Sequence to fold (256 residues):
Amino acid sequence: MAVFSAYAQFYDALYQDKDYPAECDFLEQIFARYANAPIRTVLDLGCGTGGHALLLAGLGYNVTGVDCSAKMLACAQAKAAAFEGSNMPTFQHSDICTLDLGQTFDAVIAMFAVISYQTTNEDLMAALRTARQHLEPGGLFVFDSWFGPAVLTQKPTDRYKVVERDGERIIRFASPTTDILHHTVRVDYKILRLKDGQVLEEVDESHNMRFLFPQEVTHYLNETGFRVKKLCPFLRLADELRERDWNLVVVAEAHE
Fold:
């Protein structure tokens, strides 16, 4: 089964506690500190159901969102239909490794571990080249990923999450398997949708995630036309990375 296929219908419910406003505020802090010129246009790679794209559009940015999951994009477009701003975001179905929009943006973002889904070196470099292709020199690329030192020291563990939606209960079980040689963690998800104690639907889906290391990230970005401007923990621009920080944030600048 493709990633974010059947899972898509549960995505917004499962991540209803995700603080998108704080994350967009974090992006604006990065823009203000590291951009060479005002950021007006944003390309959102792996936009999912539009959580960042819609809020950034509401803040006045012209946003184009791209995702490889048609079902996730359908959710984004449904939410965009209720958008009241004058610069409603646009969405496009495409693989970020092969995307070519024929235009450039002031900033490219890839949030919520989108880059970690690029598990081979070839796909990782292709995604980075896509970002570079859509930026003029001096443009910003901001993304987050799983942070290798944290993954190896803390180690992924089995987890479950329970949320309520429209009188139903959604339970997600996550079972990880770490491959230290390939720097990946396969997370096997099982999602149950229940009502009145009865199972209405059961979904199984596996996500393979790559964890990254600072020297590795710097190398691949240099190879694809970027300079690293900042590495920091997620939502903490002023802090240094530590082993406890599960998410690495990268700020890179496109160069000639």
